[in-house]
Design a protein that fits this description.
Number of helices: 13
Structural class: alpha+beta
Strand order of the largest sheet: 2-3-21-20-19-18
Strand content: 15-25%
Helix content: 25-40%
Radius of gyration: 25 Å
Number of strands: 21
Largest sheet: 6 strands, antiparallel
Distance between the termini: 41 Å
């Protein structure tokens, strides 16, 4: 029921973080998590103020940190393991009863005013331990339930038993009622046990515990190209494919010779034999393929085309310019995989061809109708916020509830650092929901930007992400709030699956394991896109 323990998860991905040869930075160099310098310097002062009985100043510092730094991280008791500033401040307050009492009295009026003004999330975020904070948290959990964000509601409710007012009045029963409602939509054993424990503590009897039947269309879990695919029960036919189709071109107008330019691009790329980067996704009877320029759907048995669309319109001129730039920079291969993520009736893709730290061609994320290929929305993440300028999408798209989560990587620039961000988008509109800067690392400008693909995992309301620069993090999918993050030297722990420095292999993507056992493998087996074609040079 609880999120993955950071110690177990870090152990599970220790072989991933920097598993490839991180040529963009020297080995044994620690990345810089996006930790709060303000919180790091101010939290020890709070203890000094308490020791001096200067509670007024201690309360002022605590509330200032919660107002400005709550969603940042700060190093915890274990070296290189970072926790949310909000959690660190709450632990400090709960450990100091006198300070907690003074804080609640001083901050309650402001919390009540914010709630009256409709600032529900801000009260829950920065004033949680006030009486109004508990009210706001229960109201937020109710809103998440009404929005069908049940995992998010569960994560909000899990914090409430630690609140000083939890046992006051009907609060415990109200929380138990909300938890029971969540458990009806998430009838996993650990969730039902959690709700039962809350009902027992609150002596809340008579609540409906029967699981709610989900609509058939929502029962199917989302999947992307790295998820376990259906296994075909086929009679051995030898080495010849039963059916084959070329991945690119066909069925779409090409007024600018875009496909011809793309083929030239891939012929250049295929000289080193490392271009099997297109990973299909199969759901029901349909196979979906994203080649970076078009997205296509085929009958999974016959490979008969269902639809093919070109969401963007990159010109052949842009491909030629990018190709020349990559040649001059001694480009050594593609840096990411091309995938399709399926959720409900959406097919979500990141387009373009990833190399030299950027994506050539169409750099946007597109949501398509999975049945027809009609474009629902398109989003250029790098243009959504100044913090994301010059970034490009890395790794498969993830979906949790109604939030689309993508990883954005900023290549080395004038400041010689590579940055990593998680970005949450609204599933229905593509609008920006949140941005979480995970960290950065120093870079040598003339080195390769990325030596292998990386991928994240969405599990029970939380996004887990690791990167070869040495970062690993857990972030709430609905809000972008950090749970924890960690770091280790970039490239310090190569694995048996790591590519040689001169041979990056896009078909192997490192990702954290949602099972979080120290011995679990986090690198999925390679899946070659050549399974759908008889011409390997065109994979």
């Amino acid at each position: 029921m609880r999120p993955i323990d950071p110690r177990l998860a870090i152990g599970a991905v220790a072989a991933l973080v920097g598993g490839g040869d991180a040529l963009a930075q020297p080995r044994d160099v620690l990345p810089y998590p996006d930790d709060s310098v303000i919180a790091r310097d101010a939290l020890p002062r709070v203890g000094e103020f308490v020791a001096a009985q200067n509670f007024g100043e201690a309360v002022r510092v605590v509330q200032s940190i919660l107002d400005t730094e709550a969603d940042a991280v700060v190093e915890g008791t274990e070296k290189q393991l970072y926790i949310a500033v909000r959690s660190a401040v709450h632990s400090l307050l709960l450990a100091e009863p006198q300070l907690l009492e003074r804080y609640r009295v001083a901050s309650e009026p402001r919390a009540a005013a914010l709630l009256e003004a409709g600032e529900l999330r801000k009260v829950e975020r920065s004033y949680f331990l006030t009486s109004t904070g508990l009210t706001a948290a229960m109201a937020l959990a109710q809103l998440e339930i009404e929005g069908a964000r049940f995992e998010s509601a569960r994560l909000v409710l899990e914090d409430l038993p630690s609140h000083p007012d939890f046992g006051t009045g009907t609060n415990a029963r109200d929380v138990a009622a909300l938890a029971t409602l969540v458990s009806r939509y998430l009838p996993r054993p650990e969730v039902t046990d959690w709700a039962r424990d809350l009902r027992t503590k609150a002596a809340a009897d008579g609540l409906d515990e029967a699981p709610v039947a989900w609509p058939e269309s929502l029962k199917r879990a989302w999947r992307n190209s790295l998820a376990a695919q259906p296994v075909a029960d086929l009679v051995p036919t030898g080495s010849a494919p039963l059916q084959s189709v070329p991945i690119e071109s066909g069925g779409v107008e090409d007024p600018n010779d875009t496909f011809e330019a793309a083929r030239s691009f891939r012929e250049f790329a295929s000289k080193d034999g490392r271009t099997a980067w297109v990973l299909p996704t199969v759901r029901d009877d349909v196979l979906y393929v994203n080649d970076g320029i078009t997205v296509a759907a085929f009958d999974h048995a016959t490979l008969s085309p269902v639809w093919r669309v070109q969401p963007g319109n990159p010109s052949s001129t842009s491909y030629g310019r990018d190709l020349n730039t990559l040649s001059l920079n001694s480009w050594r291969g593609l840096e990411d995989v091309a995938t399709v993520t399926l959720h409900s009736d959406f097919a979500i893709v990141a387009m373009g061809t990833p190399a030299a730290g950027v994506r050539t061609g169409d750099r946007r994320v597109h949501a398509l109708d999975a049945a027809t290929g009609t474009v629902r929305w398109s989003a250029d993440v790098s243009a959504m916020d100044p913090r994301l300028a010059d970034t490009s999408i890395r790794g498969p798209v993830l979906v949790e509830g109604d939030t689309v989560v993508v990883t954005a990587r900023r290549p080395s620039g004038p400041n010689r650092t590579i940055g990593l961000y998680l970005v949450g988008l609204d599933l229905s509109s593509g609008g920006l929901r949140w941005i979480r800067h995970l960290g950065s690392i120093g870079s040598v400008t003339w080195s390769r930007q990325q030596s292998r693909p990386e991928a994240g995992v969405a599990s029970r309301g939380i996004i887990y992400r690791t990167d070869e620069m040495g970062l690993v993090a857990a972030v709430d999918a609905a809000s972008g709030r950090p749970r924890w993050s960690g770091s280790s030297p970039a490239g310090a722990v190569p694995t048996a699956h790591s590519p040689a420095p001169s041979s990056p292999r896009p078909t192997k993507s490192a990702r954290p394991s949602s099972t979080a056992t120290p011995s679990s493998s986090s690198t999925p087996p390679p899946r070659r896109s050549c399974a759908t074609t008889a011409t390997p040079a065109r994979c």
